[in-house]
UniProtKB/TrEMBL annotation:
<keyword id="KW-0436">Ligase</keyword>
<dbReference type="Pfam" id="PF02540">
    <property type="entry name" value="NAD_synthase"/>
</dbReference>
<protein>
    <recommendedName>
        <fullName>Glutamine-dependent NAD(+) synthetase</fullName>
        <ecNumber>6.3.5.1</ecNumber>
    </recommendedName>
</protein>
<dbReference type="GO" id="GO:0005829">
    <property type="term" value="C:cytosol"/>
</dbReference>
<comment type="similarity">
    <text>In the C-terminal section; belongs to the NAD synthetase family.</text>
</comment>
<dbReference type="Pfam" id="PF00795">
    <property type="entry name" value="CN_hydrolase"/>
</dbReference>
<dbReference type="InterPro" id="IPR003694">
    <property type="entry name" value="NAD_synthase"/>
</dbReference>
<dbReference type="InterPro" id="IPR003010">
    <property type="entry name" value="C-N_Hydrolase"/>
</dbReference>
<comment type="pathway">
    <text>Cofactor biosynthesis; NAD(+) biosynthesis; NAD(+) from deamido-NAD(+) (L-Gln route): step 1/1.</text>
</comment>
<dbReference type="InterPro" id="IPR014445">
    <property type="entry name" value="Gln-dep_NAD_synthase"/>
</dbReference>
<feature type="domain" description="CN hydrolase">
    <location>
        <begin position="5"/>
        <end position="275"/>
    </location>
</feature>
<dbReference type="InterPro" id="IPR022310">
    <property type="entry name" value="NAD/GMP_synthase"/>
</dbReference>
<dbReference type="GO" id="GO:0005524">
    <property type="term" value="F:ATP binding"/>
</dbReference>
<comment type="subunit">
    <text>Homohexamer.</text>
</comment>
<dbReference type="InterPro" id="IPR014729">
    <property type="entry name" value="Rossmann-like_a/b/a_fold"/>
</dbReference>
<dbReference type="InterPro" id="IPR036526">
    <property type="entry name" value="C-N_Hydrolase_sf"/>
</dbReference>
<keyword id="KW-0547">Nucleotide-binding</keyword>
Length: 694
């Protein structure tokens, strides 16, 4: 009898509303799966329209075009003799569902709606979809006429059911259902389902991949079975980077692992596995078998098709492998680099411009662009025709082949050091040396004339001339003068981004990169509408601590020796006058807190859901060896004052790569007021009472 089943899963770089491109990538994945002998192919969540359509899901066009793509898939000979499992939105009885459409040989077998919707953090699925709440219930779905004409079916099963083929039984989960405490695979496994599938739209967060892998492996460790996970990859038009990691697991062990970060638009994993291994694994788990004897059965859709061949005794099967996880530094090097590449090629721009200050943040951003150039050259070397075509279009040269990352960097990356009278020669030299080592086209300019012109207008109108604090001015005057410098840098960054290539006789414009880290954004330690205001920011979701570790990684792996002096220098905005030619202003002194403290505040505020009082209560224990309760109270109060005073800046925060779960991104992740009572009188009173009691 047939026992060796060959199944395929994939990671696809789909793009919201790119129906033509999405269809081409789906077809390509099916062709690869078939060429490797697969009889079942699983794709990512909502792969037909792209996961990130957001409020476009409300539009009937999105539903219509999804069915038009499904029609193309159904009628194509490319989808014959393989069960295809694709994702799309479906309207059933005037209710919109996030669905899997499973078909074989021009017949739809089942439409399976999502049961548990993702609705936390970056996800808002309940805004657009309704969860299917009728467990083990199937209804008739009336197909649109364009589909009826292809399939010859008027209605198909719609609901919570499983597929029974000639040789096994398959059950579907969709993304969030794997993370739910009552995952469907538990009951399905007890009811005899041997192959579980999961189509995901799961995004990258630093140090998250192991959690997904552990969940998949644990899904079959207790209950036995084969688990197949597909995921989206790339930037599909938003702040998130979907990080692939397609995988296949059996009986608690990984047997196939896809890449987490790559520039391949289509990646297909195929595994051949022995169903008898599942059956023998389950046979000795008596607790599982007792529970299985009492389970409420799932409706089964019978499929006259087998995933195995009758004579398969000699067919080799896949063995368990050890999953390789990236270090956080590798994740920073690869994830934002792939996100930048997707953004660059899909925005039809000619490269990036970065104001390079010679500090850690802008240098880390430059290193991520350099890493992107490395990835492009490596992909071309490995024969990726899509990347080569994109690179040629970006540099406007149909014969170009990117081979050297530094040379490619010169073509697509412009760095600009914007000096003022408050800038030190040290930072100028550091920026220049780093630009030389990564190969960027580097510009040195001075902003003093523009600053004096703007301040001069104010002086003419008011008759008053503001001064820095060191020259006898007030803190208001000093802050205003610092902000003028910062904002002029933003204006010049956009001017040079639009016209630098024009001045060099080259076509196209440049995307402006921001370089404010997640901690500075949380504290509000940035000027509104300064160089933090850009088109995109690859480090806006990364902490200062992680960026320092990433810089060290770049020194060791990219041999960028210029970073050593950048690492050792204290972070500074260089907006106040120098003292004896040396920098007197430092970031941590300005902020009144260290970057390490900021990371702790951020995690407690967002991840631990701590307000001022709860944060104080947690920190008096965490910091009991280094701070008195009164000192902790002072620190917590200062953080919340500064956070609330500056929260309005988050409303205009540059779209940033989402990498940390304590991001203060106001767009969709961290929804808070931006006009606070910054005295926090009641909360601080509770802290003071506790301090006095202690």
């Amino acid at each position: 009898m047939g026992r060796a089943v060959t199944v395929a899963t994939c990671a696809l770089n789909q793009w919201a509303l790119d129906f033509e491109g999405n269809l081409e990538r789906i077809f390509r994945s099916i062709a690869i799966a078939k060429s490797k002998g697969a009889r079942y192919r699983l794709g990512p969540e909502l792969e037909i329209c792209g996961y990130g359509c957001a409020d476009h899901y409300y539009e009937s066009d999105t539903l219509l075009h999804s069915f038009q793509v499904l029609e193309k898939l159904l009628e194509s000979p490319a989808t014959e003799d393989i069960i295809c499992d694709v994702g799309m939105p479906v309207l059933h009885r005037n209710v919109r569902y996030n669905c899997r459409v499973i078909f074989l040989n021009k017949k739809i077998l089942l439409i399976r709606p999502k049961i548990s919707l993702a609705n936390a953090g970056n996800y808002r699925e309940l805004r657009w979809f309704t969860p299917w709440s009728k467990a083990r219930h199937v209804e008739e779905y009336f197909l649109p006429r364009i589909i009826q004409e292809v399939t010859g079916q008027e209605t198909v099963p719609f609901g919570d059911a499983v597929l029974a083929t000639k040789d096994t039984c398959l059950g579907a989960e969709i993304c969030e259902e794997l993370w739910a405490p009552n995952s469907p695979h538990i009951e399905m496994g007890l009811d005899g389902v041997e192959i579980f599938t999961n189509s995901s739209g799961s995004h990258h967060v630093l140090r998250k991949a192991h959690a997904r892998v552990d969940l998949v492996n644990s899904a079959t460790a207790k209950n036995g079975g084969i688990y197949i996970l597909a995921n989206q990859k790339g930037c599909d038009g938003d702040r998130l980077y979907y990080d692939g990691c397609a995988m296949i697991s059996m009986n608690g062990e990984t047997v196939a692992q896809g890449s987490q970060f790559s520039l391949d638009d289509v990646e297909v994993l195929v595994a051949t596995l022995d169903l008898e291994d599942v059956r023998s694994y389950r046979a000795e788990i008596s607790s599982r078998n007792l529970a299985a004897s009492k389970v409420n059965p799932y409706p089964r859709v019978k499929v006259n098709f087998a995933l195995s061949c009758p004579d398969d005794v000699a067919v080799p099967t896949c063995m368990p492998i050890q999953w390789r996880h990236h270090s956080p530094e590798e994740e920073i090097s690869l994830g934002p680099a792939c996100w930048l590449w997707d953004y660059l090629r899909r925005s039809q721009q000619a490269g990036f411009l970065l104001p390079l200050s010679g500090g850690i943040d802008s240098s880390a951003t430059a290193c991520i662009v350099y890493s992107m150039c490395h990835q492009v050259c490596l992909a071309v070397k490995n024969g990726n025709a899509d990347v080569l075509a994109d690179a040629r279009r970006i540099v406007n040269d149909e014969t170009y082949i990117p081979e050297d990352p530094r040379e490619f960097c010169k073509r697509v990356f412009t760095t600009c050091y914007m000096a003022s009278e408050n800038s030190s020669q040290d930072t100028c030299n550091r920026a220049k040396l780093l630009a030389e080592q990564i190969g960027s086209y580097h510009i040195n300019l001075n902003i003093d004339a523009a600053v004096k012109a703007v301040v001069g207008i104010f002086s003419v109108v008011t008759g008053r001339t503001p001064r820095f604090s060191v020259y006898g001015g007030s803190s208001r005057e000093s802050l205003a003068l610092q902000n003028v410098q910062a904002r002029i840098r933003m204006v010049l960054a956009y001017l040079f981004a639009q016209l630098t290539l024009w001045a060099r006789g080259m076509p196209g414009g440049l995307l402006v990169l921001g370089s404010a880290n997640v901690d500075e954004s949380l504290r509000g330690y940035l000027t509104k509408y300064d160089c933090s205001s850009a088109d995109i920011n690859p480090i806006g979701g990364i902490s200062k601590t992680d960026l320092k570790n990433f810089i060290q990684y770049c020194i060791e792996n990219f041999q960028l020796t210029a970073l050593r002096s950048i690492m050792s220098a204290p972070p500074t905005a260089e907006l106040e006058p120098l003292v004896d030619g040396q920098v007197a202003q430092t970031d941590e002194a300005d902020m009144g807190m260290t970057y390490a403290e900021l990371s702790i505040y951020g995690k407690l505020r967002k991840i631990a859901k701590a307000g001022p009082y709860s944060m104080f209560c947690k920190l008096i224990n965490i910091w009991k060896e280094i701070c008195t309760p009164r000192e902790v109270a002072s620190k917590v109060k200062h953080f919340f004052r500064m956070y609330s005073v500056n929260r309005h800046k988050m409303t205009t925060l540059t779209p940033s790569y989402h990498a940390e779960n304590y991001s203060p991104d106001d767009n969709r992740f961290d929804l808070r007021p931006f006009l606070y009572n910054t005295s926090w009188s009641w909360q601080f009173m509770c802290i003071d009472k506790q301090v006095n009691a202690l």
